[in-house]
Design a protein that fits this description.
By secondary structure, the protein is an alpha+beta fold. It has one domain. 51% of the residues lie in helices and 30% in strands. It has 1 helix and 4 strands, in the order αββββ. Strands 1-2-3-4 form a 4-stranded antiparallel beta sheet. The radius of gyration is 35 Å and the shape is rod-shaped.
Length: 138
């Protein structure tokens, strides 16, 4: 009986050594998968942060862009302008309607009204947005 028990002990020790190798392999796979997942999450977070920064840059330039377009020479049909900080504005103005006012306030001055439709795009790095603005000129 002791020999049988001794044989079981020896067998059990051999199987424990083999099981230890499998445990090491599985833990290595789990560690590798967790490192790969964390690197993926960091990359996705960095890309999202980059897109948010680009969007904030365009949003910060928008009041300046609208003021520029309201004061720009709209007789030029298509123009591209660098607005600073690598923000590029490309715009195209088309007259929608032109006419003279029916109510004459000052008969000494003759002026006409023109309604322009301005289609403009703003690009910064990889992000680009398209907008439409109507401007009344007199």
């Amino acid at each position: 009986m002791f020999k049988q028990l001794n044989g079981l002990l020896i067998k059990k020790q051999l199987t424990n050594k083999g099981f230890l190798v499998i445990e090491i392999l599985i833990s290595g796979l789990i560690l590798t998968a967790s490192i790969a997942a964390s690197m993926y999450l960091v990359r996705i977070g960095y890309e999202s942060l980059s897109r948010a920064r680009d969007s904030n840059m365009i949003s910060a330039k928008m009041p300046e862009i609208i003021d520029f377009l309201k004061n720009a020479d709209l007789s030029q049909t298509k123009t591209s302008v660098d607005m600073g900080d690598d923000v590029i504005l490309t715009w195209r103005a088309t007259p929608i309607r032109e006419g003279k006012p029916s109510l004459i306030i000052n008969p000494m001055k003759d002026y006409s009204l023109t309604l322009y439709r301005i289609e403009f795009g703003v690009t910064y790095n990889r992000l680009g947005r398209e907008y439409i603005l109507n401007v009344l000129r007199y």
